[in-house]
Design brief:
Blueprint lengths: L1 E6 L2 H5 L2 H10 L9 H11 L4 E2 L1 E6 L2 E6 L1 E8 L2 E8 L11 E2 L3 H14 L6 E8 L4 H12 L2 E4 L3 E7 L4 H22 L5 E8 L4 H13 L14 H16 L3 E8 L2 E11 L2 E9 L8 H13 L6 E3 L15 E10 L3 H18 L2 H13 L4
Parallel strand pairs: 6-8, 14-15
Antiparallel strand pairs: 1-3, 2-5, 3-4, 4-7, 5-6, 8-16, 9-16, 10-15, 10-16, 11-12, 12-13, 13-14
Helix pairs in contact: 3-8, 4-5, 6-9
């Protein structure tokens, strides 16, 4: 028989560390963004003023499901809203429930509980759910039973490359591209000295590496724009914590391109369960004419083939540059669920009708996005 237990304070959350990791390792949803350590650091840096709503499901006395949720308060079209979302939304590239039992039964129990406390929220917003986990299909069945208004999508692609098949072919492909790129650069700017560094696992120089990639990012097109890794102090603190914890766990994977002894590009990845998750890549704009980001990517991909890496995951984002490296992709999706009531009904209309219309009107949409950024709305 299933039973649900709410975890609403940090001390109680910490007590589930080992049970959390054990369940994740046995689940179909396992990825670096659902690890206890990632969620823990998200809570410490981004959930100080939010209401934790972690729901643990037990079958008898065995933990069989986790809903890593939080209630986020912000403004939407100037209206105050409270949304139930995954911990780490916006900073995590993949999110989900962690379930080893019957997915439909567990999700029904989670949804029933959320409906029972509907006075605490206005809508549920679950993002970056990978299609292969089966969560979206199960959630669709559960929501249909409730009759609640909902919006599914839009779906997006997440690109990846498998290294456990055709290794020689993959290596030759990216090795040729890397060498061809260097020859082209040398023809236009002879005498440049390229060096590559890759730091995987436990990094003794993690503080130095962090400082280097921070400086590269400041000189990149991202600069200090909202949403960049180092745009705000809480983001800086978050990634410092990640560097420390992930280095201790042997989960860091950072590569750098060094040109004439000066670091000019970085790739910031996480290595977990044989997969290298590409979290960020940036290069110093002063060297844009030699495409240092592309050079580094070709090198990292060829270097990855004969390491203990089974897959390179480009993570979320449909950037056209990713499709130049691979055609393989997975679907990521989003579902928003609205409780009964006039206010939530207005939010449903705004998100299902008004926002799609605005996205088709470039002038209005761009003006809206600038306003949203200026006021730090979600």
């Amino acid at each position: 028989m299933l039973k649900l237990k709410k975890v609403s304070n940090y001390e109680e959350f910490k007590a589930y560390k080992y049970a959390w990791q054990k369940l994740l390792s046995e689940s179909n949803e396992s990825n670096v963004f659902l690890t206890y350590d990632w969620i823990d650091i998200c809570i410490k840096n981004f959930c100080k003023f939010e209401d934790l709503l972690i729901l643990n499901i037990f079958e008898d006395e065995n933990l069989t499901g986790i809903a890593p949720l939080v209630i986020k308060k912000y403004k939407y079209f100037g209206l105050p809203v409270r949304s139930v979302r995954f911990i780490g939304t916006s900073i995590s590239d993949r999110m989900d429930f962690i379930i080893c039992g019957n997915k439909d039964e567990c999700l029904s129990m989670i949804l029933d509980y959320l409906v029972s406390v509907k006075e605490k929220w206005d809508f549920i917003d679950l993002q970056e759910i990978a299609g292969y986990t089966g969560t979206m299909d199960a959630m669709g069945r559960c929501v249909k039973k409730t009759g609640l208004l909902n919006i599914t999508g839009p779906s997006k692609k997440s690109f990846f490359i498998e290294f456990n098949k055709n290794k020689d072919e993959i290596y030759n492909k990216f090795s040729k591209k890397y060498c061809a790129k260097l020859r082209k650069i040398d023809a236009g700017k002879p005498g440049l000295n390229f060096e590559m560094e890759r730091h995987m696992g436990s990094c003794a120089d993690k503080e130095k590496i962090f400082t280097v990639i921070s400086e590269i990012e400041k000189n990149s097109w991202k600069g200090n724009k909202a949403g960049s890794l180092f745009s705000e102090q809480n983001h800086i603190n978050f990634h410092k914590d990640i560097f420390e914890r992930f280095s201790n766990n042997n989960w860091l994977d950072v590569s750098m391109l060094i040109l004439n002894k000066e670091p000019v590009a970085y790739m910031y990845n996480y290595f977990y369960e044989g997969r290298s998750y590409n979290y960020s890549i940036a290069y110093d704009e002063r060297f844009a004419d030699i495409s240092p980001g592309t050079v580094l990517m070709f090198w990292v991909l060829k270097d990855s083939v004969f390491r203990d890496i089974i897959e390179f995951d480009f993570a979320r984002g449909e950037g056209s540059w990713k499709s130049r490296f691979t055609e393989m992709s997975r679907e990521h999706n989003r579902v928003r669920i609205f409780k009964p009531g006039a206010y939530s009904g207005i939010l449903y209309i705004l998100q299902s009708k008004v926002m799609p219309y605005m996205k088709n009107q470039d002038i209005f949409y761009n003006a809206w996005m600038r306003t949203k950024g200026a006021f730090k709305w979600d």
